[in-house]
Write a structure and sequence with these properties.
Rossmann fold, 42% helix, globular, 4-stranded parallel β-sheet, 11 helices, alpha/beta
C-alpha cells in the first residue's frame, strides 16, 4: 500500500474523515483537475467535483450559464461542502470582474455556502507573492488570453508578454507535457516581468512550478495551485497543521 493511501488512514487503519471539504464546478471535458487536487491536497481536505457543459462545443459565457450553474452548485451543497469553487479560468475571466462577482454571489446566495472562482484565487495568489507584471502562458486561443489580460489589467496587473498555444480544447490541453511548458515559459520570459502566470485548470502546468521557480528565480502561479492555496487559507483552523507540498512553490510559503 502506498504512503499516500496510508496517510489517509487513522491508527486503526480506517480511512480518515476529511476535516473540511471543497466542491469544484469544472468543465465537463476537464480530466486533470481531479487527479491533481487529490495528489497535491493534504488528506484532511476532501475534494468533491461536479461537471458543467460550458466549454468546447458547449461553449457559453459565464452570464449564460444561469440555471445550469445553480444546479451544479446545488449538487455540491448536497455533499455538505464548506466551499464551492467555479473552477474554469478562461470562463471566469471572460466577461470581466463584475460578471465573475455576480456569478459567485449567485452561487453563495443560492446555497448559503462561501464561494470563489479560479480567477479570484489567481488574483489573490499573484498579490500574495508580489507579482504585478506577469508573463501569461496558456493553452488557449489568443482571444481567451486577451480576455484574461483585460481582466487582470482592470485589477491593476500589467501583463508584459503572453503566449497562447492556440489549442482546440481540453482534449489537446492535457497532452502538452511538463517539459514543453517549461520550454514555452522560458522563451516567453521578459526582463521586466516579476512573475509567471500559467493559466488553465486542465494542463500539466502544476508540475512545472518548482523547476521553473528554481530556473527563473521568480514566483510562478498556476490555476490549480492557486485554488488549492486559496481554499486552504479560507478553511483556516479547520485544517490546522495541514500543509501543501513545497513542490507547489513560493505561494505555499505565504500565510
Amino acid at each position: 500500500m502506498s504512503d499516500a493511501v496510508l496517510a489517509q488512514r487513522d491508527a486503526r487503519g480506517i480511512l480518515a474523515t476529511p476535516a473540511a471539504r471543497i466542491g469544484l464546478i469544472i468543465p465537463s471535458s476537464n480530466r486533470l483537475s481531479e487527479p491533481q487536487f487529490r495528489h497535491f491536497a493534504p488528506p484532511a481536505l476532501g475534494i468533491h467535483v461536479t461537471r458543467l457543459q460550458m466549454t468546447g462545443k458547449w461553449n457559453r459565457p459565464l452570464s449564460a450559464l444561469g440555471e445550469d450553474l445553480d444546479r451544479a452548485a446545488s449538487a455540491l451543497a448536497d455533499a455538505r461542502v464548506d466551499l464551492i469553487v467555479f473552477h474554469c479560468t478562461g470562463t471566469a475571466m471572460e466577461e470581466g470582474p463584475e460578471q465573475e462577482a455576480r456569478a459567485i454571489a449567485r452561487i453563495s446566495d443560492g446555497t448559503g455556502i462561501a464561494a470563489f472562482s479560479t480567477a479570484g484565487a489567481l488574483v489573490e495568489a499573484l498579490r500574495a507573492v508580489g507579482i504585478a507584471r506577469p508573463v501569461l502562458v496558456s493553452p488557449y486561443v489568443q482571444a481567451t488570453n486577451d480576455h484574461e489580460k483585460d481582466y487582470l489589467a482592470r485589477l491593476g496587473f500589467a501583463v508584459v508578454n503572453d503566449v497562447a498555444l492556440g489549442l482546440k480544447g481540453g482534449d489537446e490541453y492535457l497532452t502538452v507535457p511538463p517539459e514543453r511548458w517549461i520550454e514555452i515559459a522560458r522563451a516567453a520570459m521578459r526582463p521586466e516581468a516579476d512573475g509567471l502566470l500559467l493559466s488553465c485548470t486542465n494542463t500539466t502546468q502544476i508540475e512545472t512550478i518548482a523547476p521553473l521557480e528554481r530556473e527563473l528565480g521568480i514566483p510562478v502561479v498556476n490555476s490549480n495551485q492557486a485554488v488549492l492555496w486559496a481554499a486552504m487559507r479560507r478553511l483556516g483552523t479547520r485544517l490546522a497543521g495541514a500543509r501543501l507540498a513545497p513542490e507547489l512553490g513560493r505561494l505555499v510559503e505565504t500565510a
